[in-house]
Write a structure and sequence with these properties.
One of its GO terms (biological process) is regulation of DNA-templated transcription. With 370 residues, the chain is mainly α. It is built from 17 helices and four strands. It starts with a helix and ends in an 11-residue tail after the last helix.
Length: 370
């Protein structure tokens, strides 16, 4: 099939210029577009389809003789072939004539595939069984003879169920040769997702010998995909941490301002049995209790206390009104900011920006003046 693509390249006519030298008949153009739309939607009536099938199979007034593999012959009508395929139109112009007959050859694929292909040019339809059996051959023929709708049908059928572990590598190679980017991308993704199984298939082993560069490209894509996956996981974990820090800031303000179940300001009545809407509140209550009673409370002396000091400092950098804030040490940390090194200042500033960006806000709502 690959040889057939290469041998027929010289027969493919150059595409026409985008501009037209003469006037365009708008009504004809509209009829042509409507006809194409009907064909693409497979809405041709069964009676019309039967009529075209009879014309093909009975060969009434056929004028083209198509030679296939193993001495097979398919009869067709030159006008239909020329209208359906610009490549066949160019081949027919160069074909030898004997009376009314023109003789061309379509080789490299089984005789039954040629019959299915030519029948499609007549009816723009196919039997499901033929598509399942000949889909790869039909993909090649649709590319070589420039029949875009058949090419689309082949790609769609492969995408929706005819792709398998056994033919993935073969389909990828054909998709690349037949300029089917969507199909090749789907094959690449499936190969990467099922690489362990695909790498043991005969198709992969053959490709390693015949197309080592393609193997290298797929392996490089696997590395890229793995790096993207790792980066996505890292960002998800990072986002989770920033959201937890924001929730901790909300819970800290809630505890110090309103009080929660077992801890809060001296002037607030605590309700131990009431549920709390802040998910971080329970853990933060335990941390505050430990901080209040720990004898190694100095920074660096206790891991839990060190975490509490960091939460206090983070709060102070998020707080917009430290003068009226009821969180302990908020004003003290605000005053210390000017004395910190530039490196520490930048580090804290980046952390605050990432927390607010992750939450999608400019200022934390829990720090706005009520």
């Amino acid at each position: 099939m690959i040889d057939m693509i290469q041998n027929n390249n010289q027969l493919i006519p150059k595409p026409p210029s985008m501009s037209s030298s003469g006037p365009i008949n708008s009504s004809c153009d509209m009829r042509s577009n409507n006809s194409k739309s009907r064909r693409q939607n497979n809405n041709t009536s069964s009676s019309t389809k039967d009529l075209w099938e009879r014309l093909f199979y009975q060969g009434y007034k056929a004028d083209v003789c198509i030679n296939t593999n193993n001495g097979g012959i398919v009869y067709a009508h030159s006008n239909i072939l020329a209208m359906a395929s610009p490549v066949l139109k160019g081949i027919l112009k160069q074909a030898n004539r004997c009376g009314r007959w023109r003789t061309i050859s379509i080789t490299g694929v089984p005789h039954d595939v040629v019959i299915t292909f030519i029948q499609y040019l007549y009816t723009y339809s196919y039997e499901k069984e033929d598509m399942e059996e000949f889909v790869l051959h039909l993909l090649v023929l649709s590319h070589v003879y420039m029949v875009p709708h058949l090419k689309f049908e082949c790609g769609q059928n492969l995408e929706l169920g005819l792709l398998s572990i056994d033919n993935l590598v073969d389909v990828l190679q054909l998709a690349l040769l037949c300029d089917a980017p969507r199909l090749s991308l789907i094959c690449q993704r499936k190969i990467i997702e099922n690489f362990k199984v695909v790498s043991e298939s005969e198709g992969w082993k053959t490709m390693k010998l015949s197309h080592p560069l393609l193997e290298k490209e797929i392996l490089e894509l696997m590395i890229v995909e793995e790096n993207i996956k790792k980066e996505r996981i890292r960002k998800m974990k990072e986002r989770k941490i920033y959201l937890q820090l924001y929730e901790a800031m909300e819970a800290l303000v809630h505890i110090c301002k309103d009080g929660c179940r077992t801890i809060g300001p001296y002037d607030k009545d605590l309700q131990a049995n009431q549920p709390c809407k802040y998910s971080a509140c329970n853990g933060l209550e335990l941390l505050v209790r430990h901080f209040a009673g720990c004898k190694l409370r100095v920074p660096g002396g206790c891991v839990h206390c060190k975490r509490m000091w960091q939460l206090f400092e983070l709060h102070s950098r998020l707080c917009v009104n430290s003068d009226d804030c009821r969180v302990p040490l908020c004003r003290n940390f605000k005053q210390r900011i000017s004395k910190q090194s530039k490196k520490d200042e930048i580090r804290w500033k980046i952390l605050v920006e990432k927390i607010l960006r992750t939450k999608g806000i400019g200022i934390a709502s829990c720090f706005m003046q009520q």
